[in-house]
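Person: I have long wanted to understand how a fold can be written as tokens. Underneath my words sits a plain record pairing an amino acid chain with its backbone structure tokens. Those tokens are not coordinates but codes from a learned vocabulary of shapes. I should like you to check that the lines agree and flag anything odd. The protein I mean follows directly.
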Amino acid sequence: MLPSALWFCIAILPISFATQQAPLHDSTPLLPKATSNELLYLHRKLVETVSTPEKEKKVGLWLKSYLEDKKFTVELQEVAPKRYNLLAYGKKRETPILVSSHIDTVPPFLPYYYNETSDVIGGRGSVDAKASVAAQIIAVQSLNQKLHDDISLLFVVGEETGGDGMRAFSALEDRPQYEVVIFGEPTEGKLVCGHKGILGFTITTSGKAAHSGYPWLGVSANDIMIEALGKLVRLREHLPWSEKYGNTTMNFGYISGGAAANVVAEKATAKIVTRIAAGTPKVLKGLIIDALKDVKAAAEDMGGGLDIEYMSEGFPPVDFDCGVNGFQEMTVNYGTDAPNLEGDHRRYLYGPGSIFVAHGDHEALKRRHLEQAVLDYRRLIIATSMMHGQEKERFEM
């Protein structure tokens, strides 16, 4: 019987000793040729298949067929008509480890390309998050059979539009409970120790339309909105902050109001997202309501109105587990599906590529970084299974 630590070394030896995201200029092969070709094929097919909001059916069905060809059992969960989550596993449905990412992307669709000279792979979803999906699958396939059978794969829809896919999976009455969940998102090849929380809301102001030559005959919803946003601009300079996540931020992402320049505006709308660095959505709601209460009262006195509608319950900052040897660490400002999966499990967040290109028209990553992610997911799975008391079962003989 070999010591657990030695079995760990043997487990990763056949592929590579690489521990960090590789330098861009290094062209040393990271994976065997056949493994690399399979990774590039899988990634290309995923990126080539449109999966923008409400159009995830085709990529879900293709991925189901692919995984079944690789001897996984695959369950489809219909989240909404023509939109499916995929749960895949080997010999058993109840596994201690879950590896997960999302198969939906933001719009618009951008075609796949691969420039072999520059080693750059691009297209919508090439980073967020089909790079994670492809690398996770190839990593799990490369594990020894015993560890392979202790892992499930979950690929969900709707992450980019509020997390309805993960919430639907979480709500399943017969879903397994996991000890460890590894989430895939673009993290620059680093292990994320946490991300900010979020609270989104819509402000709607109402007034009374009138001719612009006689504004006193109406009530301007735009005037009410301008005053409300001014209050929030002042508020966001005093929102909660933390050493770990920095400042809570508030973004005025969408503002619309009125019908024409010569008409007193009857209605105005603003959509706002707050990224929470400290505290809870409940605390933020209280601050927002307090900041706008005088504007709301004045609007109602004039015969207008101001209403606040929250896009969801929101969530506070989310901490992840860290401290895995060989991984650099970071925190991020974006949200993930992690808070949408309920349960008493340890959670990790890792993935190839940068969030800075994820939603832009230049979304792309290096092939080498995609290959490195296979090694890192594999190493993370093995390390976390050992850290959480499962090494005796898996690595002793």
